[in-house]
Amino acid sequence: MKRNARRRNALTAVAAACALAATGCATSGSDDAGSAHGPLVIGASVSLTGDFADSGQAVQRGYQLWADSVNAKGGLLGRKVQIKIVDDLSSPTQVITNYQNLINQDHVDLVFGPFSSLLTIPAAQVAKRYGYAFLEPAGGGPKVFEQHLNNLFFVQPAPSTRSGDVFANWILSLPADKRPKTAAYAELDDPFAAPVAESVRAKFEAAGIKTVYKQVYPAETQDLSPVMSGVAAAHPDVLVGGTQTQDAYQQVKALVQLHFNPKFMFQSNGANSPQQFPDKVGAGNTTGVMSSGDWYPGSTAPGSAGFTAAYLKKYGGTPQKIDNTSAEAYACGQLLEEVAKKTGKLDNVTITQSLHSGSWPTLLGNMAWKADGSPTGQFSLVQWQGGKLVPVYPAGVARVAPVYPKPNWGG
Fold first, then answer.
1. Model-level pTM?
2. Buried/exposed code over 46-63 (b: 16+ C-beta within 10 A; e: otherwise)
3. CA distance 145 to 174
4. Largest CA distance in the chain
5. pLDDT digits 0-9 by tens, 294-311
6. What do you get for the CA distance between the two ends of the chain, in Å?
7. Is residue 410 part of a domain?
8. Nearest to 320 by CA among 387, 268, 265, 269
9. Domain range for residue 226?
10. Going edge to edge, which strands form the sheet with 290-293?
11. 364 in Cβ contact with 295 (< 8 Å)
12. Which of 56, 180, 285, 305 is 20 to 30 A (C-alpha) from 210?
């Protein structure tokens, strides 16, 4: 779920990148992947360097862990899986070149997606032009689905801009005397972060929760103290942060310095990082902060236990430190396993047609998609409790009850 705020500065490159993608010549893709001999080669362009490198490397780990897992069971349809990763430098033009080379020069059987909507938009068009199914774990912005590509499947529970809805739904499920009466919104000027907060604001205002402060700040903002001072002066019951990563950390640090502690606090990104958030804001300043997520340690969803064990064996650490971006990438592979199991084939046409029908189990839960590739589920509400990020809502996934009002900073 973590998304780098610097994507915003490169969005103008997408139009040119998409035009370049359109210059390719359409082919039928590798339409006999399920019956060929030799390894099943899956190509992916991933950001190993550049702005998205941290999250890109998490994607790479997820893809490779799944390949290791399926190969330990004999591969897919009798073929060992080989993941071919190429670095796109976090560039929308390089990502086009990479997928064109993977398909036309390397003749990969299948492809997986990159990290971020910025790169997914042009990459998906290349895949569509050459007849490839496009399972992608980290491109859920509105413009991805506005392309109306039937070969695209966003492997998360819901579009990214709907990730705050679960927080709004929980707040509105509280008894009237427990709900917040006033709200503030601090939003990064970003096509992924701000819409999350705006969706929450629409629900809150419709329910009578009064907006007492709203500020949209540019991505170049180095000091959020003035914005957070405005929040503190308005003294809202609930603060909704339309954040990415660095600005999320800045919001918390500024609030701690101002000694202002809202009764409820939600951040769209940043707070859902099990490793970076406590390191950046201080472990004592995480308690009670909420965000949204799709995978969590201890999940009983299909394949979750195996994923966790494989991750810890290969990379070490603890389950709480596993980046859910790796789980999202791993789920792309799970879907291929399910298609192969159900159909006995694994060509691009079969994958695309199959995934548009029914519901498919993954470690993120059961997945299903609309015609434009947008998933039809919802995220989980997660909260920092006892130094851990745990799911608290809805009831079907909650491990513990939500804690509110939010404890004081340092508590």
1. 0.86
2. bbbebbbbbbbbbbbbbb
3. 33
4. 67
5. 998 889 999 999 999 999
6. 26
7. no
8. 387
9. 162-296+380-393
10. 210-217, 182-188, 238-242, 264-267, 290-293, 380-385, 388-393
11. yes
12. 285
